[in-house]
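Deliverable D5.2: sample structural annotation.
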Amino acid sequence: MCGILAVSGFRDAIQDLYDGLIVLQHRGQDAAGIVTYNNQFHLKKANGMVRDVFHAQSLDRLRGPMGIGHVRYPTAGCSSEFEAQPFFVNSPFGIALAHNGNLTNAKELSRDLLHTDFRHLNTTSDSEVLLNVFALALQKQRPIKLQPEHIFRAVRTVHRRCRGSYSAVALIGGQGIVAFRDPYGIRPLQLGKRKYGMKEEFMLCSENTVLRPLGYEFVRDLLPGECVFIDRKNKVHARVCKRGHLAPCSFEWVYLAAPDSILDNVSVYKARIRMGESLAPQIRTAGIHIDSVIPIPDSSRAAAAGLADKLKIRYREGFVKNRYIGRTFIMPGQALRQRSLHFKIHPIELEFRGNNVLLVDDSIVRGNTSRKIVEMARESGAKKVYFASASPPLTGPCPYGVDIPTTEELIGSNHSIEEIREMIGADGLYYAKVEDMVKAIRVGNRKLQRLCTGCFNGRYSTPDITKKILLQLGSNRNVTRETGDAKEEEEEGARAMTLI
């Protein structure tokens, strides 16, 4: 999961790109980057949050009416600053690309690019692989004057060679902006527009939460397998380059996306409310007494509100979230995640003292957060602490760009619900069912026939996913995570030595 953004207009695009990445910060906190173009490329990228990467001086030099941006959440590759996006190749024309997703055949493609196509790769990132596959497909056509058909042919080649998930935006020097979505539409990509005098400017983004604050009107989601090319005259060309079957990631609605976003015509907020409502029959059947329903901020608020309304039990805010701590699920190392839990959430003791509380979270991944939060509730005086997850148990890894790499890390993969209840220390534990989660999403769009539920029940969007591929991806990411954790420990030691 990353956040991508592209702007094509008639004035400097940098303010829209910067502000847009700020709005998309929830999709990645590890690195950020922007590239613009006005007869030459201007690039700035580094590790860190958007506000830390870009300063007045760097924003001032990022000139040009078109550009792309990226916020990074590392899964494939590592969290090195060299892996920050956008990536760039100088031929043909000069192309910069930003990618959200994960290629499941990146290793195979890397070998082919090196040994068959003689293209050098500077990183282990699958996004650089995707860029080179696209650039090579464009270059082989030897276009003297670039036409939309050249772009569409190149994207058809991408669809033929690349497997996995990819929503991408690219900037081609002197030519325009390209955006394309994989044939299963696993990761979101949307088009917006706004008036500029008698003309129109365009934005492509991961989520339409970006559009309204910047004055853009939502146009539509890109179709599975579709490519959009906005030429240098700001004319939009679109074509479905490979017919696909829309099967987006269900975890977008569970946790990843912002609540005010609408993805593939389904409101994230309303889907989460319905997920919460679906838990009510289980809890009624349990026959337990609950004084208040309390969400784990922030992404479970809608589900908790839906559940409380259905049960006709009071909804209360029992935790204060430190807004200066990032989302722990998407932090790039287990050591950093665990350390941040101690600072992220603080209980409001008055809401717990002497009460039976039902805590609601969007999901239970590794169990670390859940266990700590149950402890906080008990320490604050709760008599009984029940726990509900608005999504089913996570039982398998995600090969499409969410950091759920191995079954060993998932508390739901090798333990029964009763065992998990004991491990997190709750008096009762309730999970949503897969069919209820899917229904909660599909209510918003009956045409949405399929959803990727692989991390819940092994039913992945693409047919190429095998146990062997999942093991390989998990192994690669574990190496990355160990490297990242070692780096964190080294930096922590260095800080301690400085204090001494």
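Annotation notes: The mean pLDDT is 91. The domain at 3-246 is CATH 3.60.20.10 (Glutamine Phosphoribosylpyrophosphate, subunit 1, domain 1).
The annotation will be released with the project's public dataset once the embargo ends.
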